[in-house]
Amino acid sequence: MVVSTNTRVESLATSGIHQIPKEYIRPQHELKTITDVFDDENDENAPRLPTIDLSGIRSDDPETRQRCRDELTRAATEWGVMHLVNHGISGDVIDRVKAAGEGFFGQPVEEKEKYANDIASGKRQGYGSKLANNACGQLEWEDYFFHLVYPEEKRDLTIWPTKPEDYIPATAEYAKQLRALATEILTVLSLGLGLDEGRLEKEVGGIDELLLQLKINYYPKCPQPELALGVEAHTDVSALTFILHNMVPGLQLFYDGRWVSAKCVPDSIILHIGDTIEILSNGKYKSILHRGLVNKEKVRISWAVFCEPPKEKIVLKPLPETVSEAEPPLFPPRTFQQHMEHKLFRKDNDDAVDPK
């Protein structure tokens, strides 16, 4: 059975194929590391990424606040990723966001195609099956919906789904609450570097310029999950990334020389430190390499919100306070746009901007 690689992954998954097209098969060195995600989740001996109870940073007790800040900055330093619980975002809003995303992807592919993006013409927002070309030209076992959700005045509601009816109000409210959480996290990370509490937020664009981009990832059942990846190994270019999921495991982190599967923690949001914060902190905070596994038993859905600085207005480089003779700058100055192009096209350092 010949299937066009332009076909949506969902259509492939439901077409009755028993073998995936060769474009989805990972190279040999990766195949050796792909494991059964359900076996991984039951491995009690595997390292576990930290869980941070954020209720502590809102405590009236200074010692409790400081202890929570220390735990969060330690997780950002050692792992670069963590589960956040008691994060302050309404459980009802999270349930609504998940129901809205599941409702959108539960529609026939023909309905979703009305929202199709067109990367070639520069239309990144919308429904698609690949956000960008990877270095090796292979495809990932996922479909997605991608759009800007905050600030409100920069949204384009014409490309937001109108079905289900709660998609727009639920997603808008979630973005608003998540933006407040981003400020709390950036405050803690600033203090952890010995900076004024508002410094990192200012450095990534502040309340007016920091962009929140939502990518709903839809990973259909895969007939050969041992050969494919939902998302290939990468680090996030963002400042911060917040992730919800439908409690189906799949996220893996490259930690201490091995791939570690993130266990599902109820009522949590996963927080990733992105490249932007790693650069500003001169490597103190880690942007961890991660990827997504797929399986043949359950559909996995995740909701990733990338908090990104403006593309051209800010030069990303290690902050002066993080640099010393003993700790020289680890990253050349680049705009966010240049950093993305450097990662995407593997450009050399000659695209860096003059630091003066």
UniProtKB/TrEMBL annotation:
Keywords: Dioxygenase, Flavonoid biosynthesis, Iron, Metal-binding, Oxidoreductase, Vitamin C. One of its GO terms (biological process) is flavonoid biosynthetic process. Its cofactor is L-ascorbate. It holds the Pfam family DIOX_N. GO terms for molecular function: dioxygenase activity; L-ascorbic acid binding; metal ion binding; oxidoreductase activity, acting on paired donors, with incorporation or reduction of molecular oxygen. PANTHER family: OXOGLUTARATE/IRON-DEPENDENT DIOXYGENASE. Belongs to the iron/ascorbate-dependent oxidoreductase family. This is Anthocyanidin synthase.
